[in-house]
Amino acid sequence: MSIDFNFIYTSFFQILKALPLTLVITIVPLIAGFGVGLVTALIRIYKVPWVYRIADFYVSFFRGTPMLMHLFLIYYGIPLIIDKLAARYGWAFQSSSIPILVFVLFAFSLTAGAYMSEIIRSGILAVDTGQMEAAHAVGMSTSQALRRIILPQAVGAVLPNLCSMFVGFLHGSTLAFTVSQMDILGKADVVASVSLKFLEAFIAAALIYWGLTVIAERITALLERRVAVYSKGGVS
Amino acid sequence: MISLTNIHKSFGQQEVLKGIDLTVEQGDVVAILGPSGSGKTTLLRCVNFLERADEGKVQISGLTVDCKHARKHDIVQLRRKTAMVFQHYNLFKHKTVLDNVTEGLIIAQKMSKADARERALRVLEQVGLSAKINEYPSMLSGGQQQRVGIARALALNPEVILFDEPTSALDPELVGEVLSVIRSIAQEGITMIVVTHEMGFAREVANRVVFMDGGSVVEEGTPEEVFVRPKQERTRQFLSRYSSDWSYVI
Amino acid sequence: MGKSFDLSLVLDFVPELLRYLHITLIVLSGSIVLGLVGGVLLAVPRLYRIPVLSQLATLYISFMRGTPILIKLFLVYYGLPELLKPLGVDLSRTDPLVFVIVTYALSDAASFAEIFRGAVRSVDKGQTEAAYAAGLTTFQSFRRIVVPQALIVAFPNMANTLIGSLKDTSLAFSIGVMDMVGRGQTLISATSHALEVYISLSVVYYVIVLVLEKGFAVAERRLQRHERKKEVRGPAVRAERLKRIAG
């Protein structure tokens, strides 16, 4: 068996240069996804007429199909829509001028939004019904109660899942490779193709992802211990 | 005949059993009393090796097992001569009442399904739960679950039944039904070792009382001797705390 | 993409893609079955604290759960032949399907191991004690008392892993497997209607996932028939609850 361990070492640092892009592809969708997820969760809980059906379908569809499909649907679908609209309204704008990264981030944000929506929704539902009653009893309006009592607890519902969401999307970022993004996997592929040392390059990439995952696990464990003081009573 | 010789047990630095000797004759009903931390439950669990004593010997009708060098095979043999009723019942949650009772018979004692079922029905009738044989434990009250636990132990036809605080986890109004079942099987002459807080019950049903404190046997004798004429100061102190709760008789 | 979007093509593509559904299902079932076996083998050393084996298992599980599926696919694709070369095994003409099943099996084994470990630990120790007290051996107690109860706890998580694995199979095309996605790629080359192809693919996956989820929900309810009957959570009760929460 001939593995060039030295090459694993050198390519490790070369490939690491793509870390910033990977982190962008991981974190931006998580943040955008939280926003999307929060809005859709509320729409679904309050059953806003008609819209909630779309929200339900959105969540169901994006959780029931592979992330790869999301990427390709957006990558091929949005340009079509944009170009059609551009032709109709005479925009001096072509979809091809939009960097691919935008499509990647948009697609993954939708994915994240669907998963977040489900987490937030069950988090809100798990909130003790007495909390809203108590808020009313103290004189808060519904929206005040939502903002100050319910939503903070909904955020608390997301925290335990934060690690698995981060890791999930960190791993999901590798899909960007299929639309020629130079993330960690993309860089590894380039390094591999140039040197023809495919196994070594991918081992290096694997180690980078493994390391990032372990770091993320450690950090969230630390965070959870800090937050645990408040959630002793078992919010969710 | 059961005898425990020189049982020592430590948990880490803490010595919980400091050389206990205990002999139980056939037909005896031995009540073990004492404050929490006295080691009484640990002692009971050493009999069927749910806890492994560091030193000492456990002998049950001819089979002697040295605690320090006990082999898996001997432990299983020893366990087949005993049965246990747990404080938290520990019924097999995924099995019906009937299956709970037949499980040990079929699997451990290799009885045929038909024989096991027959014996199970008999003991379940004895504890008054014939109507519930096809129910799952989660649908029964605590008192009913414990009675199933007793039936499960009875069915195994052991040399001795070990009771680990059988009524401590029950709501007060359910304690009575379990105690009356225990009393009735005691009257049949089954050998029992009962760790309990129910003083009145111990006084009434046991023919021997053992008082433990701090890991040793402080005093033992008939209920008369221990309850009415305790010889040791510690025994007297312990009993005085419970003197108002003596009668839990139905 | 010069051609215009044609929704009716979606209907045409679906049957064509379904012709390769069996490949996807072979990958899925192969990896799940092997993964279950592997999961048990990995969980046992950790549950019984067997020295060396349990540390190796922990390391393996950490690695498998810490790397993306695409990376694992490439590692196995390039690594397995290297690994087996000294043993004289030539994998240069092996169907990529084999590599895919091996990869997903190795990965699923790690997921299942974690699920099993958590499930077994959730079974009340008193159950095992009662089994021992009744005369059962360690093995008998584990098999007849602990495992059935652990499986009920594990089931929802295992179902999720299976559905996740199904979605992951969409990446098999990257090492040349001719499954539904693979066929989709050839359709795109032939017709240049990428969007329609991916819509068809998405629909197929979506339907399969919905069917599986329904099936698992039914199975779960059957498994839990020994639980106490909780308050009925019908739509009326849920609506009431939502009203109280949402004000």
Automatic annotation (TrEMBL), chain A:
Statement: the UniProt record of this protein carries the keyword Nuclease:
no
Its keywords, alphabetically, are:
Cell membrane, Membrane, Transmembrane, Transmembrane helix, Transport
Enumerate the PROSITE patterns for this protein: ABC_TM1
Signal peptide (UniProt feature, chain positions) = none
- Indicate how the chain sits in the lipid bilayer: Multi-pass membrane protein
Gene3D superfamilies under this entry? MetI-like
Task: Cite the ABC transmembrane type-1 domain residue spans from the record.
Answer: 19-220
Can you tell me which residues the record assigns to a coiled coil? none
Q: Does the keyword Coiled coil apply?
A: no
Spell out where the chain crosses the membrane: 20-45, 57-78, 98-116, 149-170, 190-216
**Location(s), subcellular:** Cell membrane
User: Its family?
Assistant: Belongs to the binding-protein-dependent transport system permease family.
Q: What protein name applies here?
A: Amino acid ABC transporter permease
Instruction: Tell me what organism the protein belongs to.
Output: Paenibacillus taichungensis
UniProtKB/TrEMBL annotation, chain B:
Q: Does the keyword Cell inner membrane apply?
A: no
Q: How does it sit in the membrane?
A: Peripheral membrane protein
Any single Pfam family the record assigns to this protein? ABC_tran
Key words, A-Z: ATP-binding, Cell membrane, Membrane, Nucleotide-binding, Transport
Gene Ontology terms: cellular component: plasma membrane
Q: Does the keyword Ligase apply?
A: no
Q: Which InterPro entries match?
A: AAA+_ATPase, ABC_ATPase_HisP-typ, ABC_transporter-like_ATP-bd, ABC_transporter-like_CS, MetN_ABC_transporter-like, P-loop_NTPase
GO terms assigned for molecular function: ABC-type amino acid transporter activity; ATP binding; ATP hydrolysis activity
Q: Which residues form the ABC transporter domain?
A: 2-239
Cellular location(s):
Cell membrane
The primary site where this protein sits is: membrane
The protein, known as? Amino acid ABC transporter ATP-binding protein
Originating organism:
Paenibacillus taichungensis
